[in-house]
Design goal:
Elements: E1 4-10, E2 15-17, H1 30-40, E3 43-49, H2 50-56, H3 58-61, H4 63-67, H5 70-81, E4 83-87, E5 99-102, H6 107-116, E6 120-124, H7 126-134, E7 140-145, E8 154-155, E9 165-172, E10 178-184
Parallel strand pairs: 1-6, 1-7, 3-4, 3-6, 4-5
Antiparallel strand pairs: 2-8, 7-10, 9-10
Helix pairs in contact: 1-5
Length: 188
């Protein structure tokens, strides 16, 4: 049985991108990229919103990106080897292999997919993750908190609800960013 993991890179003040959609400050250095690669090893399925999916597509379609470094090539392999479901009302067909499109989020389907997955399931994109949080599906949150504040923009947790978390692990990277892993606590 897999776990549903919300994975995100964010600013210290809790944003994924600024008001203009800029997230250039979030590009990982080699150490953080290696950390991301380690986390990708156990992932068998990715659930993605359309915007995040379109950002990630070049890891499969642009051979120069993967050839840029050993760590990049490794990440590209993990990306290409995992199944993906993209939630979009506008994307007509997949842009990558091993990819299916769903028009809307179905909590029952995600619960079943997570339970039957041979590895963990990662959910990416805050709007999509908010739906999974609302339905009580998220088991774990993995964040890399970059050493920058941006003031406003797209929040990591676009929720109108409280989510209780328990810290499992923290890592301080050489450049000052933090890697944090939290277990989602159930209110019962």
């Amino acid at each position: 049985m897999g776990r549903l993991i919300y994975s995100v890179v964010c600013s210290l003040d809790g944003y994924l991108a600024d008001e203009n959609g800029d997230f250039s400050w979030a590009f990982p250095d080699e150490q953080i990229h290696r950390h991301a690669n380690l986390e990708m090893r156990g992932i068998s399925l990715q659930l993605l919103g359309r915007r995040l999916y379109e950002i990630m597509v070049p890891w499969e379609t642009d051979p120069d990106l993967a050839a840029d470094s050993e760590v990049g090539a490794e990440f590209a392999r993990y990306w290409q080897d995992s199944d993906k479901i993209v939630y979009s009302s506008t994307l007509a067909e997949p842009l990558t292999e091993r990819t299916r499109i769903r028009r809307s989020f179905d909590a029952r389907e995600v619960r079943t997919l997570t339970r039957e997955a041979p590895g963990d399931v990662v959910i990416g994109g805050p709007t999509l993750a908010a739906e999974a949080f609302r339905d009580g599906l998220v088991d774990e949150v993995r964040m890399v908190v970059m050493q920058v504040t941006i003031g406003s923009g797209l929040p990591v947790f676009p929720l109108n609800q409280r989510v209780r978390l328990s810290l499992i692990e923290s890592t301080t990277f050489d450049g000052g960013a933090l890697g944090l892993i939290y277990r989602v606590l159930c209110d019962a």
